[in-house]
Amino acid sequence: MKILLRLVSKTLPLILTLFCLLIFRLQHRQIQALTEQNQALTHTFSTQSQQFQATLKAIETTNEISKQHFYASETQWADSQANKIFIKKPLAIMSVLTGLCLLPLLSGCTSTQAEYVTLSYPVIPAPLLADCLPPVIATQMSWGEMLILNEVLLTMIEQCNIDKQAIRAIERERQHEKTC
């Protein structure tokens, strides 16, 4: 027994040292894996950043080109003599047409008598005004019966929503008739 205790007492520090080295090695591998992941993510980020900057530069270049093209085409169009003629002719025609349209309005001023018409509002159907009655709920139910009850209740709520939508449509129709 003493020999065994001596053997254990001499080998225990060695076993603990080996165990600590094993733990250190595992942690070192984890740190290396995390470092590699970090490097990969940094590379991906820098690549995406470069792509974004290139896209942004291309958009800015396209905007500059379109601005230059717009200003160049605008000055060419305004400076051309043919376009000045095409602008003046329609303006003269439009002023003549405006005068011709105003003449009948001046001669058409006669006294008119307002005639009021009574409007009949659409009647709301009785099923739309009826209450939505809930189904009878039993005191004890199984899970299947509870599922069926939930389905019936959802169907009733859906029907009430359809009724309310129909009432809103009738009210919109009434408002439209009032404005006309």
TrEMBL record:
InterPro entries: LysC-like. It comes from the Bacteria. This is Peptidase. It comes from Arsenophonus endosymbiont of Trialeurodes vaporariorum.
